[in-house]
């Protein structure tokens, strides 16, 4: 009997170990497949540069010939002719002085610049892709439901906000960059400090009334455009516009990632992040106040938003952000 029992224990042990070995082989196979997928995607995303610049913050900026940029991987842009400048700007752009008169540059400028006829592209790294939920999801924005916003004209205590929160990553497939000074996704320098100097940049997106392309300008730099040919409804105009902040974590549970400065809007100027002089471009290519804004926020104890439109110098504005996970936001 003892011999039979010993034999059975040995058999069970063998089966358990065999199962563990099979699981290990399966995990290794999955990991190898994922690594191959990552390497394949990196090869597609990172175009051969004419020069590369290592930024003090660890980024690598590749100077890619303007005709070889990722935009032209888009099937609708195979024979696209690059438009170097928009036909015109919107009328009525706020051009008053910023909080600080210091010019804002990007960190990689400390170590060089991209030559003419190239564009700066932040090199995508393996860890960038691995932060996505899957290799196929990298660079794609998660679908979101249409939020029920509250108007800022309504009584709206900040602890009764409703809306949405979603994750986003960006790639440049479809965006045609024309500027060789600003790298999308690269860090700016200097940056605002809590209770100290505050630095601002002006961001403008508008539809060229002649060419129909959607142009992007940061400060005085026109970065490039999204060609109208890659859109359907946006060929005519936008029906909804959103401003604010987003954070993302691939892990379950509430993230401790800061939004904005990591401080709540109630702390105000110099401490909380803000967007001011919010405007929209109308059908006559003129900038104007957006009218009543809606506030969207799903987790007010984690991140919050506060809006206003009574300031002469700030126009329509909003403070936003928060620390994420905290004692009131488990």
TrEMBL record:
<dbReference type="InterPro" id="IPR004314">
    <property type="entry name" value="Neprosin"/>
</dbReference>
<dbReference type="InterPro" id="IPR053168">
    <property type="entry name" value="Glutamic_endopeptidase"/>
</dbReference>
<feature type="signal peptide">
    <location>
        <begin position="1"/>
        <end position="22"/>
    </location>
</feature>
<keyword id="KW-0732">Signal</keyword>
<feature type="domain" description="Neprosin PEP catalytic">
    <location>
        <begin position="60"/>
        <end position="330"/>
    </location>
</feature>
<protein>
    <recommendedName>
        <fullName>Neprosin PEP catalytic domain-containing protein</fullName>
    </recommendedName>
</protein>
<dbReference type="Pfam" id="PF03080">
    <property type="entry name" value="Neprosin"/>
</dbReference>
């Amino acid at each position: 009997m003892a011999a039979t029992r010993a034999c059975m224990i040995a058999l069970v042990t063998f089966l358990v170990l065999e199962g563990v070995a099979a699981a290990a082989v399966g995990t290794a196979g999955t990991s190898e497949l994922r690594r191959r997928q990552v390497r394949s995607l990196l090869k597609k995303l990172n175009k051969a540069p004419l020069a590369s610049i290592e930024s003090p913050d660890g980024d690598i900026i590749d100077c890619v010939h303007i005709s070889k940029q990722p935009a032209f991987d888009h099937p609708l842009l195979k024979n696209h002719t690059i438009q170097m400048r928009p036909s015109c700007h919107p009328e009525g752009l706020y051009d008053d002085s910023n909080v600080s008169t210091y010019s804002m540059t990007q960190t990689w400028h400390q170590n060089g610049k991209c030559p003419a006829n190239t564009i700066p592209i932040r090199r995508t790294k393996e860890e960038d892709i691995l932060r996505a939920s899957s290799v196929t999801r990298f660079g794609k924005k998660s679908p979101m439901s249409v939020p029920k916003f509250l108007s800022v004209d309504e009584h709206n205590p900040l602890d009764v906000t409703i809306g949405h929160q979603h994750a986003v990553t960006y790639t440049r497939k479809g965006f045609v960059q024309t500027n060789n000074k600003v790298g999308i996704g690269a860090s700016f320098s200097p940056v605002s400090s809590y209770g100290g100097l505050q630095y601002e940049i002006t961001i403008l997106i508008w539809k060229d009334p002649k060419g129909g392309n959607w142009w992007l300008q940061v400060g005085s730099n026109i970065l490039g455009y999204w060609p109208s040919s890659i859109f359907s409804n946006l060929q005519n105009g936008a029906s909804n516009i959103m401003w604010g902040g987003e954070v993302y974590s691939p892990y379950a549970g509430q993230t401790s990632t800061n939004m904005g400065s990591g401080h709540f809007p109630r702390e105000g100027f110099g401490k909380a992040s803000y967007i001011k002089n919010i405007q929209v471009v109308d059908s006559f290519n003129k900038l104007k106040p957006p009218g009543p804004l809606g506030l969207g926020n799903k987790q007010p104890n984690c991140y919050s938003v506060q809006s206003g439109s009574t300031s002469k110098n700030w126009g329509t504005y909003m403070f936003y952000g928060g620390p994420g996970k905290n004692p009131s936001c488990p």
